[in-house]
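Example for tutorial group B:
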């Protein structure tokens, strides 16, 4: 009984931690009022897209960027040593649009295959100080994407974190898992930004002033890490004073999701590999949330299976699930991902197992690629 007593009180502590995350931390974003319309701005901006072997995606998605309803923008297209027709496609678009600038990057022995090297050349080539980043396989949901993101820049707010969604695929559990992971990650980085400790952004939809880049000497502090041009850079330079978020649906981008588990798992290994370089406070808070999730399930199952004070345990479990559904549900409603909320327990447990496997894999061998 002493062991069960210890497990029970440990379970209480774990649930309290979970309640603090879902109700307080994530609630700072989930339960906040929908953002009011930001003041429109006509700041000149450079949209930067780095592409490696993305000829078909450029043909498909670049028009949605060129057709943005915004008066003053250029598009900087970076060809990162592609071996397909990416450069030819860039040049074909440039012949028809005078606001396109092409940066052709050849392999450099010191920076071979390093996206950060290619991005650095693109940023240096940009004509404007305000920079908006997206990926070659992304498209803005509306023609107001640039307008919405730029409207959040002020003299103080020089970093704007946006949301990059993934396309929905019917009857695909993998697609729902991908979108749940994306939703949870967005809820985390938007919430952290809301309470003044921003820690990351996603390169599919991210904007900042070039001064932030040059004052930090670019990606120099993590140039040897193949990933992290978005999250590691933001983790380094973002503060309470210079960072804001944009969650107006017209500001979202939409990307092509992976359609087989192996490719997605490989992608997530690369993404997760950068988290070890986050600031300690961010690593602590993210690790505490993950550990509390795992312990909630393990301790809850043990206590229920032994019928130890089961009415109390069951009531606590129900309370936690209600808070989770409310917190993640309101966030999902804001980010237009509400259809996955009804599968939360299954998606949560699946992701926890996958994240544990990724952690073990990355301890054994480090992923060192971006394409």
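The residue assignment follows.
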């Amino acid at each position: 009984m002493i062991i069960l007593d210890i497990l029970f009180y440990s379970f209480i502590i774990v649930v309290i931690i979970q309640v603090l995350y879902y109700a307080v931390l994530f609630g700072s974003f989930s339960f906040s009022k929908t953002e009011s319309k930001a003041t429109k701005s006509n700041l000149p901006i450079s949209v930067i897209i780095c592409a490696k072997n993305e000829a078909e995606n450029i043909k498909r998605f670049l028009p949605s960027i060129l057709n943005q309803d915004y008066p003053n923008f250029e598009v900087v297209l970076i060809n990162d040593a592609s071996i397909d027709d990416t450069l030819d496609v860039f040049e074909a678009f440039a012949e028809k649009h005078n606001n396109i600038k092409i940066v052709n990057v050849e392999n450099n022995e010191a920076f071979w295959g390093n996206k950060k090297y290619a991005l650095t050349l693109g940023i240096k080539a940009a004509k404007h100080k305000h920079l908006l980043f997206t990926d070659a396989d992304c498209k803005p949901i509306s023609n107001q994407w640039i307008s919405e993101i730029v409207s959040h820049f002020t003299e103080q707010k020089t970093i704007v974190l946006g949301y990059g969604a993934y396309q929905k695929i019917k009857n695909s559990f993998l697609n729902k898992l991908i979108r749940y992971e994306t939703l949870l990650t967005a809820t985390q980085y938007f919430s952290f930004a809301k309470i003044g400790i921003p820690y990351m952004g996603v390169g599919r939809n991210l904007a900042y002033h070039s001064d932030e880049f040059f004052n930090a000497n670019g990606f120099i502090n993590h140039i040897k890490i193949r990933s992290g041009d978005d999250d590691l850079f933001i983790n380094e330079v973002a503060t309470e004073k210079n960072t804001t978020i944009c969650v107006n649906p017209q500001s979202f981008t939409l990307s092509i999701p992976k359609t087989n588990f192996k490719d997605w798992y490989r992608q997530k290994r690369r993404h997760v590999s950068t988290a070890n370089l986050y600031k300690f406070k961010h690593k602590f808070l993210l690790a505490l949330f993950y550990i509390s999730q795992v312990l909630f399930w393990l301790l809850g199952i043990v206590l229920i299976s032994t019928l130890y004070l089961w009415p109390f345990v069951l009531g606590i479990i129900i309370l936690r699930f209600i808070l989770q559904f409310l917190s993640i549900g309101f966030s999902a409603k804001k980010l237009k991902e509400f259809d996955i909320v009804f599968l939360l327990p299954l998606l949560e447990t699946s992701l926890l197992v996958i994240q544990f496997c990724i952690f073990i894999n990355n301890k054994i061998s480090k992923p060192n690629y971006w394409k």
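Residues 45-265 form a domain with the Spore Coat Polysaccharide Biosynthesis Protein SpsA; Chain A fold (CATH 3.90.550.10). Compare this with the pattern of hydrophobic and polar residues in the output above.
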